[in-house]
Write a structure and sequence with these properties.
disordered N terminus, about 350 residues, four-stranded antiparallel beta sheet, mainly beta, single chain, five-stranded mixed beta sheet
Length: about 350
């Protein structure tokens, strides 16, 4: 410990100007020290921020004018019980510390917490995705602090929650109403509340909308609403027939559905906002086509039809060409779906 004029010959930190012990805190003094910072003496840390130097070399100088902060110790960094990563269910993140008598502050908005800013940690932090989105990224940052101790470094973990949502209808309130909940069975929320039946819902591929069938005065129409149930809009609005069983294309741009035309059901395709409606099966007459769904690659439509007598499963290109029967059970067979 040669060249260390801030010691009194033992391990007590002293002011070289007054030769009195250094108290915990911040002070200005002149020092002559050759070494690496921080150094610990008598369980106290000496942190030096050099402001001016005689020779510009912090490791070989005399009487450097410096700001000196003395701490009783350095607080250990906080830790998280759940590693950074992508998850498909809400997570309860515990932030831990090992320094006795210390406290934790944290943020979840990307900003850095300090000993005076950020939320005071008292219980596990729930990382989840709100009802209005399917995916959310959250950055948790935490710091541990204790009076007269040097703050810990900021620890950071990043979580991406891709929460699978389930929509369904139930008549537990007498009318059929649409509900949504997370795949982990949390967040059950009622989305519709009106005297008309709301049925057969499907969530858009981008997680922005729910498409459902709603009964009007006489006919069913396909409606679109936000994931929280707001801005419910009739996107078929034919007024003279019922539309049902919407299926969304893999890229989210198209919707295929069935429409009842007289005693028969026809298949229609439209854009996801309800525009550009057309009938790819118009060449088939005197037969019912219903419960359509897109193939996983979006190039074909599968549906049920009784065009050959019994109801069987058929498929065709999305332009209506290359119609082929793919089941031959001679029995009622319907509702094809790839489980996309």
């Amino acid at each position: 410990m040669s060249n260390d004029n801030i010691l009194d010959g033992g391990d007590t930190l002293i002011d070289t100007n007054t030769h009195t012990p250094l108290a915990t805190g911040v002070l200005s003094t002149s020092i002559n020290y050759s070494g690496t910072w921080p150094r610990i003496y008598s369980q106290k840390y000496l942190i030096i921020q050099v402001t001016t130097l005689d020779d510009g070399n912090p490791y070989n100088n005399t009487n450097a004018s410096s700001i000196i902060t003395v701490y009783e110790g350095v607080v250990a960094n906080p830790t998280f019980n759940i590693a950074s990563g992508s998850y498909n269910a809400s997570k309860s993140v515990t932030i831990s510390m090992t320094t006795p008598g210390a406290s934790i502050r944290y943020t979840d908005d990307g900003s850095n917490p300090t000993s005076t800013t950020g939320s005071i940690y008292g219980s596990p932090v729930t990382v989840t995705s709100p009802a209005t989105v399917l995916s959310k990224s959250t950055t948790l940052k935490a710091i541990v602090y204790r009076a007269n101790w040097m703050d810990s470094s900021v620890s950071e973990n990043n979580y991406t929650l891709t929460i699978k949502k389930i929509c369904f209808n139930t008549n537990k309130e007498r009318n059929d109403e649409i509900y949504i909940m997370n795949d982990d069975l949390t967040g059950l929320t009622r989305l519709t509340n009106d005297p008309n039946n709301n049925q057969i819902c499907v969530i858009s591929k981008d997680g922005q909308y729910i498409y459902s069938t709603r009964l009007g005065s006489s006919y069913y129409d396909i409606y679109r609403m936000n994931l929280d149930g707001t801005d419910m809009t009739n996107i078929t609005n034919s007024g003279s027939s019922s539309e049902n069983f919407a299926s969304i294309s893999p890229d989210g741009s198209k919707i295929v559905f069935e429409e009842q035309v007289g005693i028969y059901h026809e298949i229609y395709i439209m854009n996801s906002d309800g525009s550009g409606r057309w009938n790819p099966t118009g060449d088939l007459i005197n037969a019912t086509k219903y419960q359509p769904s897109f193939s996983p690659d979006g190039t074909k439509i599968y549906y049920s039809s009784d065009r050959m007598g019994s109801t069987e499963i058929f498929r065709m290109n999305i332009d209506g060409s290359n119609v082929e029967q793919i089941t031959f059970f001679n029995a009622t067979t319907h509702a094809p779906n790839h489980g996309q």
